[in-house]
Structure formats: C-alpha cells, structure tokens
Design goal:
Blueprint: H1 18-26, H2 33-43, H3 50-63, E1 64-67, H4 75-86, E2 100-103, H5 108-115, E3 121-126, H6 136-148, E4 153-157, H7 160-164, H8 168-182, E5 186-190, H9 199-211, E6 216-218, H10 230-247, E7 252-254, H11 262-275, E8 288-290, H12 294-306
Parallel strand pairs: 1-2, 1-8, 2-3, 3-4, 4-5, 5-6, 6-7
Bound molecules: glyceraldehyde-3-phosphate (G3H).
Glyceraldehyde-3-phosphate is lined by residues 67, 69, 102, 221-222, 256-259, 289-292.
Amino acid sequence: MPDTVFAFAFAPEVAASNASLRAYLHGLPGVDAVGVQARAADLATRSIKTTAKATAIDLAIRMVDLTTLEGADTRGKVRALSAKAAHPDPADPSAPHVAAVCVYPDLVAVAVDALAGTGVGVASVATAFPSGRAPLEAKLADTRRAVADGAAEIDMVIDRGAFLAGDYRKVYDEIVAVREACGAAHLKVILETGELATYDNVRRASWLAIHAGADFIKTSTGKIAPAATLPVTLIMLEAVRDHYAATGRRVGVKPAGGIRTTKDAIKNLVLVNEVADPAWLDPEYFRLGASSVLNDLLMQRTKLATGSYPGPDYYTLD
Ligand SMILES: O=C[C@H](O)COP(=O)(O)O
C-alpha cells in the first residue's frame, strides 16, 4: 500500500516568531511509533541477491562519507584516509571511490590537498561539533574557516538544548545563518536524534531543518547512542519525500554513526527505495556517515567477485 504523502505548507511568516514555529511543528501529525518500528523491522528482513547485491555494494561505497572525528586525528591519518577514500581497493581499480572524507575543520586543508583531482569531496563538521554549544559567532567562524580551506560540504549540529527547551526560533535562525555562511558549500544538518527523546521530535527537527535550508538532514554525530537507527532514518526519509512532493526541492538524508557492516548499509538502501523513491539512491541525495563500514563493503565485494574472502590483513585499517 502506498504511503500517505503529507504536504506541510510553510509560509515565510511561520518562521516569524517562536510561537508560530511551535504551532507549525506541533501541528505535524504524530509519529505512530509502533508502526514505524514494525515497518523498519520488516524492511530490514529484505534480502538482495547476486547481481543486485553487487550493484548495491558499489552504490553503498559511492555513498560513504568516510569519517574520522577523533581528538587524536593527525595530518598523517587524514592523508591515509584520503588515499583509501580515493582508491578503496588498490588491487582492484574497478572499486569506486567514496563520496567524501569527513574531518574536523582544522584538517580540511590536508584532505583537500590529498584528494585534489580524485572526485572525492571534503566534508567538515562545524558549529562546535559535537555538542553545538558555542556562541553563534564562533559557529559561523568555524563554518567559514572550513569553507575557506576548501570544504564542499559542512555538517553542522543543531542546538539540542534549545530544541528540547522549545526554542525553535533559535535553532531555525542558526541553521539559516550557517546556510548563508556556507555559500556554495552544501549544508548537512545533524539532528543528533539520540538526544531528541521522541520520534515526534525527530519529525519536528527534520521539518525545521528542511525549511531552514538544509541540503541534507543527518541523524547523528556518532558520539551519542543510539545513532542511526532504521526507524529514525525512516522518519527522516518520509520528511524529505513529503517536502519534495510539496515543493519539488529534493533534500538528502545521511544516517551516520554505528553503521558497521554491509548488511547495515543495504538495509538503509532498501529503506530509501521503499520509503522515499529510487531518485534518492544517489550519493547526491543519500550518504552513509561511517568510520568503519568500508572494509566490510570491500570484503563482501571481493567475495561476490571471486567466491572467497580476502585475508584479514588484506585491507588497511579503517
Ligand atoms: O558522521 C559519521 C560518524 O561520526 C561516524 O560514526 P561511526 O564511527 O560510528 O561510524
């Protein structure tokens, strides 16, 4: 049965005050938690075989934002990660490159230099990642620095404290300001769904970010559990699907955090196909934020092509 598609009209005056934003967001239909969990669980049981699986694995590799977001990150680590992003399987040039490498702002220039001419983008977290707790001026400076150093994509975090306190206008205004600071760079807005407490809040935060100008909505920082669960990704896919139906603007979705295996990746692709539509099955509109899924995708790819797994030391460490 096809999903009901809601068109949530959003006139500019809705953003004029916190009260009008609140009325809009709390007027959205409530999420049927049991239904969403059951549907996500059902879709997670779908399996993909042989040729379709090979295609899905290559698509998943092309959608990976290969991420390192550790306090201990070094220039050398980012160079090594960038080499892997551009040529994931040095023994098999047919393996596609990933979508982007995602790093802290101070390492953007290193990644840009290492990835020049490869087709792999550079994404950077900004706005006081992962907490989002800094004055707006600091968040904008963070964003501008990353863009000036060559980041083509900015992954910002929302102020969850403001959101949970009902200060939607502050969250909306910050996204608008960061969107402007991004210039030509794409903006991914991280909702940090593991801190939003309810599915209704995930739906509200999705619509808030979409209307404020997000190019992508992203589940998580990877620093808070639970991160990218299937029910949460499903709710976000519904939002971008319905927004597209209402406006013709296609916003992307990026589950991130805790995606470790080829099975995890393929479950997400099934969700995209069934909940949104196949037009989202493209790195332009769907990404997988992950620090360590790439090796498993490469191993399963080799297994499909040759019939056996490569040895455990075959790939560089994630
Ligand atoms: O944006 C991506 C996440 O930070 C990566 O999280 P992960 O280490 O659980 O894959």
